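step: validate -> pass
step: tokenize input -> pass
step: predict -> running
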Amino acid sequence: MHTRLDVLASGVHDAKNQLFVAESQITAAEARYGIDLSEARYAIEAAANRLSQTLAAYKVLREDAQPAVTPVIVADLCAEVGLDQKKHLATAGIELSQSCSVVDEWPLDRDLVTDMLNNAIQNAGRYARSRVHVDARLDAGWLVFSVEDDGPGFASLPPASGTGLTVARRLAFLHRRQGREGGLCLSNGASLGGARFELRLP
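step: predict -> pass
step: emit ->
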């Protein structure tokens, strides 16, 4: 089984490299013909970053290793995620707002958590009517990230939905501290009226 997964990981790595080649060609075309292909570049960069994070997640899951947990300034992480997603959502007519009441550092795997939040925001943007909101707060000793939208909500709420969510649940669970494990929760009836993605880290 591991050999098959290693082959798949190698294929993902090769695909990521090809995306970087495509991005270089698009950048050259923009300069040569004076056209704006920023959305195409964003799509390629997002896909390449997603593949990179998939490889990182695969390594953690493949080796049953622990995430690379270090103290992270939560406000900086939220700002980074906002910068990554705001322009793209605005192009689709979606407003991204943020609130972060966490001023201190928190132990977490920055790359994995950033990827989970980016993915959650992108998913919310697909169904939102006009707004997506990201929040970070402390709740009884937990760090809680949430992503909400003003869309129709989840048609159903299974324990896990799709490979991406299954992997995200596992990576959240691997964040362990003081006898507690992280977790994910999906719900409807968010403050914006749509779906809610919640990541809780100890």
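step: describe -> The helical segments are 2-33, 38-62, 74-91, 110-127, 162-173.
step: cleanup -> pass
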